[in-house]
Amino acid sequence: MRYDVLTIFPEMIRAYLKEGILARAAKRGLIEVQVTDIRAFAGGAHKNTDDRPFGGGDGMVMKPGPIYRALDSVPRVEENSLVLLLTPQGKRFDQEMAWELSRQKQLILVCGRYEGIDERIRELCVDRELSIGDYVLSGGELAALVLMDAVSRLVPGVLGGQNSTQEDSFEDGLLEYPHYTRPRVFMGREVPEILLSGDHEKIRQWRRAQSLKRTLEKRPDLLQKAQLTGEDGAILEKLKEGAEKQ
Ligand code: 6GU
Questions:
Q1: What is the pLDDT of residues 20-54, one digit of tens each?
Q2: Given ligand 1 and candidates 137, 138, 141, 146, which is best to mutate, with the most ligand atoms within 8 Å of its CB?
Q3: Is the CB of residue 102 below 6 angstroms from any atom belonging to ligand 1?
Q4: How far apart are the CA of 192 and the centre of ligand 1, in A?
Q5: Is 159 exposed, middle or buried (0-12, 13-18, 19+ CB in 10 A)?
Q6: Which structural domains are found in the chain, ordered by start?
Q7: What pTM was computed for the model?
Q8: Is residue 119 flagged as an active site residue?
Q9: From CA 144, how far away is CA 140, in angstroms rounded?
Q10: Does residue 142 line the site of ligand 1, with CB under 6 A?
């Protein structure tokens, strides 16, 4: 996977990629991140990348020229490599979209700043607009990093264990079960007995039930879309009965 990130704050992107899973993935050649400084494509003595809005009003708008030329400078791995604009107006990014994007060879991410970017860039150059949630960030940089993180961990080989993504929250539409490591007793609190039993089938059942319980308690909205088995349904019924009795 190759990412090209267009931004007026290249160091914001580079800083996050210096450490952690993404840094390791880049070192191993599983992902490549090229950061393009939009300002390098701005004209004039001041290299302005923004200007006042036609029609008046507060705030500044990112000029189309620098972004257009920056996009033009990005080598396309495929003829139809996706150009994504990060904006709160975009479609909400989720795990399903992360999987879909992880199958691309190249993602070109345009980080908007200020009040927005000139509409003609959206019309001429952008394939899709994405948002990471219903709140306003000062720019698309954090959103681009969120997207690259979520997508990269789905690229084959980026995570150590092959199964590590399958058990993640949201992969089957449920939240993850609780995790424990040593010591067996911490501040007087013991690790659930069953996890020490060595009975893998029992452990699997306990974890599944915990996932269902947590999802019911914390994110009942997720249960509508979750992939549930008959066994899951029975567990949920019991959990709901228990809740009614209390
Ligand atoms: Cl992608 N950009 C900005 N500026 N704010 C956001 C966002 C993106 N997603 C949520 N809020």
A1: 999 999 999 999 999 999 999 999 999 999 999 99
A2: 137
A3: no
A4: 41
A5: middle
A6: 2-152 (3.40.1280.10), 185-245 (1.10.1270.20)
A7: 0.94
A8: no
A9: 6
A10: no
